[in-house]
Amino acid sequence: MDVHRHFQMELEELKELLLQMAALVEKAISNAVQALVARDSKLAKKTLNGEDRINKMEITIDDMCLKLLALKQPMAADLRFITSAMKIITDLERIGDQAVNIAERAILLNEEPQLKPYIDIPRMAEIAQSMVKDVMDAFVNRDSKVARSVCARDDLVDKLNDQVFRELLTYMIADPKTITRAVHLVIVCRCLERIADHATNLAEDVIFMVDALVIKHHADNKGKKR
Prior knowledge:
Layout: H1 3-37, H2 41-49, H3 51-72, H4 76-109, H5 120-141, H6 144-174, H7 179-211, E1 213-214, E2 224-225
Antiparallel strand pairs: 1-2
Helix pairs in contact: 1-2, 1-3, 1-4, 1-5, 2-4, 3-4, 4-7, 5-6, 5-7, 6-7
């Protein structure tokens, strides 16, 4: 087998590992929110137990990226792919951390009477999870257009976060006994908002990988070349 073909096979293996890690992270988000909505603390604990696997995958992929950089000395698009992968796993691991935070709050909230119907929180989770899924699809397909659409959805999560915070604030003002539960829910919403932020970071990495453009905070849609 020639050197170039072997290198391409290694890049495919790297891509597959990234997708496996992303799938674990997406499942962690889903399980954590479902544990809250369904008041299922057993499912929440399953999310906590899955954190170690995500962390180990980050280390494995990072080691693989470093070896490819050191031994293969890739150029241009392949170099951007590997360096983007190293940044992507950092954001994926942090998304996993946020899912764990949600699961921890779910366990605490499930021990108390439910404060309010969970309507906007599952909606926030649905958008944030779809952002993660779509940005990984964009990564695999090298589709910067889809990546840009992920950036645009971040504002939806921010607006829902603000809306739920205002609603919870009225609960706390009206009845101090609700404060602890309301604060837990505020933290859950903040975790979902941060997941959306990390998905936006992933989208920016995909745009850089595909178009060699730097897009920061999706303020400049044209970007600038690095």
